[in-house]
Amino acid sequence: MKFTRRGVIQTAAGLAAGAIGSRFGNRPAFAQELKYKPEEGATLRLLRWSPFVKGDEDQWLANTKRFTEATGVEVRVDKESWEDIRPKAAVAANVGSGPDLMLVWFDDPHQYPDKLLDVTELGDYLGGKFGGWYDGPKDYATREGRMVGLPLATIGNAIVYRESWVKEAGFSEFPKDTAGFLELCKALQKNGHPAGFTHGHGVGDGNNYAHWLLWSHGGRMVDESGKVVINSPETMAAVNYAMELYKTFIPGTESWLDVNNNRAFLAGELSVIANGISAYYSAKMNPDKDPKLAEIAKDIRTTNLPIGPIGKSVELYQVTTAVIFKYTKYPNAAQAYLQFMFEQPQMSEWITSSAGYCCQTLKGFADNPVWSADPNNAPYAKASETLRPNGYAGPLGYASAATMADYVLVDMFAKAVTGQATPQEAIEEAEKRANRYYRV
């Protein structure tokens, strides 16, 4: 069975319609509260990331169709791979042409804030109406006190594992600390069921894993002032731990992108990965009724990543932000579109149809029933509330965004675990590369 980045999940029919609570009522919010009048003859083009969850895309397009029916504004929705979103957004911003709106990653808006439409008014309106924004996602979209985008969703990350194989390895429950996790991975490898975590340039999985490795051991890329402090004993401890863990992996993880661990896990080649809810739902929904996939689905459990020597959970989660480029001919139509997509019921239906993949960025949508619909959804429910931004412990800005976009931290771990560099050499190279962007 072939698994692709797009459309791997079929959500249950009618789930969205039946799941919307009464918190905001059933009134047609857009008809009553239209704030921006679209320009005459306006049309829009949105470029978004290709979905892992079919329900996400289906509901997004359905909501877009509703907007067109309500306003007459046609919206063309195009898709690109996750890895291609960042460079295409940067080109559009700097060239001054391309899609009117884009869904971008992490702190990308901080790379070109002067090229983005100020949406503070709309952001304040939505935050005031729906319980406020979670701090982490809002920070990704805020530059010098103004919102240059609307944080749309946080894509959570958690351990996805085969329960029977963990028990066969001698563990009655999944380890909660990094020491126990390493011992589990050694036992799984011995039993022929290796783990696999992305050391390649995966926008989500590669960055999420690398930052967890660093932070769980107390390391930081920069301090509060933005001074690069990656060259530290804590970073060395993280690298040494990563090297031991890598020995238990299936071969090839140093070249993996975001889709690879899904494929290997669902093919039965892996016992443990770190991923969004998509891997589980791919198996659970199983549109082709593959009996092997059905068995995998029954055996899957999820949990938060183990806690390291720092003694608390510290994880990077992938935030996607909707931005409007200043060059658009139709700024009012673009803001009206985003307002509509964030209003109830569109946002509630989209979160539900995303099957736990897209976590709300507005606190008012936190009680969506999708989070209690399946115990495996629980580790993803508070992604927006608990995430640590990638620029930690310094301020978000051009430097944090560029360092992330250049995969400085990901490459540090990859070079060390594969033996391309000694741990100290890998750390010093990361320090040098980060200092190109952080000029204090």
Verbal overview:
With 440 residues, the protein is an alpha+beta fold. The chain has 2 domains: 15-156 and 317-386, Periplasmic binding protein-like II (D-Maltodextrin-Binding Protein, domain 2), CATH 3.40.190.10; 158-316 and 406-437, 3-Layer(aba) Sandwich (D-Maltodextrin-Binding Protein, domain 2). 42% of the residues lie in helices and 12% in strands. It has helices spanning 15-19, 29-33, 54-71, 82-95, 120-129, 135-140, 163-168, 178-190, 205-216, 233-246, 260-266, 278-285, 291-299, 331-342, 346-353, 383-386, 398-405, 408-417, 423-437, and strands spanning 43-49, 74-80, 101-105, 142-143, 146-147, 150-155, 158-162, 272-275, 300-303, 318-324, 358-359. Strands 2-1-3-10-6-11 form a 6-stranded mixed β-sheet. Strands 8-7-9 form a 3-stranded antiparallel β-sheet. Strands 4-5 form a two-stranded antiparallel ribbon. A hairpin with a 2-residue loop joins strand 4 (142-143) and strand 5 (146-147). The N and C termini lie far apart (51 Å). 53% of the residues are buried. Mean pLDDT is 92; it is low at 1-32.
Mean pLDDT: 92
Put simply, the count of helices is 19
Query: By helix and strand content, what is the structural category?
Result: alpha+beta
Please summarize the sheet with the most strands: 6 strands, mixed
- The CATH architecture of the largest domain: 3-Layer(aba) Sandwich
- Give the strand tally: 11
CATH H-level name of the largest domain... which superfamily? Periplasmic binding protein-like II
Tally of structural domains: 2
What is the overall shape?
A: globular
Order of helices and strands: HHEHEHEHHEEEEHHHHHEHHEEHHEHHHH
**Helical coverage, percent range:** 40-55%
Strand order of the largest sheet: 2-1-3-10-6-11
Beta-strand percentage range: 5-15%
Q: The CATH topology of the largest domain, please?
A: D-Maltodextrin-Binding Protein, domain 2
Classified by CATH, the class of the largest domain is: Alpha Beta
Uncertain regions spanning at least 5 consecutive residues? 1-32
Distance between the termini: 51 Å
